[in-house]
Amino acid sequence: MRPACILAQTVLDEISAFIQPGVTTRQVDNFAAERIRHYDARSAFLGYRKFPCHTCLSVNEAVVHGLASDRQLQFGDIVSVDVGVIYKGFIGDTARTVAVGGCGVAAQQLLDVTEQSLYLGIAQARPGNRVLDISLAIQGFVEQNGYSVVREFVGHGVGRTMHEEPQVPNFDEGKKNSPKLRPGMTIAIEPMVNAGRPEVKILKDGWTVVTQDGSLSAHFEHTVLVTDGEPEILTWAKMPSVSKVA
Fold this sequence. Notes:
It is built from five helices and 15 strands. The C terminus is likely disordered.
């Protein structure tokens, strides 16, 4: 898992640097495809449930699963970039929301809160805790900052296949028995946060998920290993102490 996850993060870093005003999301996806091939890997998304692109590129009010197109990115847009790669039989999965050339204060605050909520969730990925501890940490921080958590899409276990058990919601589902976290588990923690209300809808393309009220949305994700102690962020080449970033 470690090599696959580092590769995914490397590609995400390269895509983030490539994004600038004037490029199309199709150009971004083509660039991502070239970089993934460069590392002798393949996209975990292309063809998955017939998904037609190498990456998910979700702009502004798009939450997740955005399709590459001839849309030109504009200064001030925010674009959520989700990268999944398959390398030597294992999957690395990571995402971040990138400002295109820069963005307004409101958009930057949304990005900051969403990213911080991710690390607060990761800090709870310890043996003996439950998935619910991750969910509550994310939801509590997001909502106390005036934003909302998407309910229809959640994090998940990841390893040899893209979506494995357990599911990792970013909110309290109200279930009595939340799965217990055990050393050796690898999970994708990925808060999807809306500036407005939590409701979403799927566009006619059958894939792109957008906020119902047209508000901005942000998405950050890391693949995390539950260890005997502090969680290990697999999709971070130089992992900081979680206690320092949470």
